[in-house]
Amino acid sequence: MRNAVVVAVAMVMLCTSMAHTDVRPQRDFNLQRFAGRWFRVGLAYDSVSFVPYRDKVKASLGVVSAQANGNVNLTMWDATPAGCRSKTYYYEKTNVPGQFTYFSTRHNMVKDITVVETNYSEFALVLKHKVFHREYTQVALYGRTQRLRAEIIQKFKAFAALRGFPREAILTPPPADNCPPSPSG
């Protein structure tokens, strides 16, 4: 019986790792073209602790700043019940253009970020992934504007579904009002 459990666990781990080995970064990824203002207009996340907040999520704004060494600073603004909050993330480049790592203070570990697809001027599909005591995966859809074409939204939903996200965990939240606040207010 114990051997069957070990084999089952090994198979699950193998399948999980295989599910993400087919994810490749954007071909010929160009960080300079990717830099700038992006709205997170789609999010797939199935953490149990996130479920109560799904209906409260709003589209958020981020600014990607390319550093001279190839690393990235990402400043995100999120609308919360307490107001608009900003947070900066520091992504370190890897040997593969379009793949980064960052240290998650929330989970106290390094996570992988892959820019799966982008046309630079309209949308970007990004995968955040790490396996620790459970698999942690998040898919995000970013747009240069808060509204994207229906076929791009469908591409995001299909990609997230292929990663195993249930339909209710794939969100396209409404825009946030005044987050970040305008410079005059």
Number of helical elements: 3
Largest sheet: 8 strands, antiparallel, barrel
- The counted number of beta strands is 9
Beta-strand residue fraction: 35-45%
Low-confidence region ranges? 3-20
**Spatial order of the strands forming the largest sheet:** 1-2-3-4-5-6-7-8
Quaternary arrangement of the chains shown?
single chain
The computed structural class is alpha+beta
Cα distance spanning the termini: 65 Å
Order of helices and strands: HHEEEEEEEEHE
Estimate the mean pLDDT confidence.
Answer: 84
Q: Give the helix level as a range of percent.
A: 10-25%
Label the overall shape: globular
Cα gyration radius (Å): 17 Å
What does this entry look like structurally?
The protein is α+β, with helices and mostly antiparallel strands and 185 residues long. 20% of the residues lie in helices and 39% in strands. It contains three helices and nine strands; from the N terminus they run ααββββββββαβ. Strands 1-2-3-4-5-6-7-8 form an eight-stranded antiparallel beta barrel. The model is unreliable at 3-20 (pLDDT under 50).
Compact overview of the structure:
The chain has 185 residues and is of the alpha+beta class. It is 20% helix and 39% strand.
Short descriptors:
185 residues; alpha+beta; eight-stranded antiparallel β-barrel; 3 helices; 9 strands; 39% strand; disordered N terminus
